[in-house]
Amino acid sequence: MKVLIVKTSSMGDVIHTFPALEDACRARPDIAFDWCVEEAFAGIVALHPAIGTIHTVAIRRWRKSLFD
Fold first, then answer.
1. What end-to-end distance do the CA atoms of the chain give, in Å?
2. Model confidence pLDDT, tens digit, residues 30-49
């Protein structure tokens, strides 16, 4: 089973998702995770061994440029 996690918000939200990944991996050994994350947090997501592909977005940068 493949799962895409779309969690682009804050670093704390990203880190707090890790235990759920561990639980899912134990329950479903066939599960594979990809993650869509804010580009600033991609390095944190890359530390988790269950993550395959990391898709980065620049929502914070885009939002900032809208108002400049």
1. 42
2. 999 999 999 899 999 999 99
- Which DSSP string do the residues of 5-62 spell out, in sequence order? EE--S-HHHHHHHHHHHHHHHHH-TT-EEEEEEEGGGHHHHHTSTTEEEEEEE-HHHH
| Confidence (pTM) | 0.78
Task: Give the residue extent of every domain in the chain.
Answer: 2-66
Q: Determine contact, residues 30/52, Cβ cutoff 8 Å.
A: no
Q: Reduce the DSSP state of residue 67 to 3 states and report it.
A: coil
What integer pLDDT is reported at residue 4 of this predicted model?
95
Handedness of CA 18, 24, 27, 33 (dihedral sign): negative
* Alpha carbon distance 10, 37 (integer Å): 9
**Considering the domain 2-66 in this protein, what is its CATH number?**
3.40.50.2000
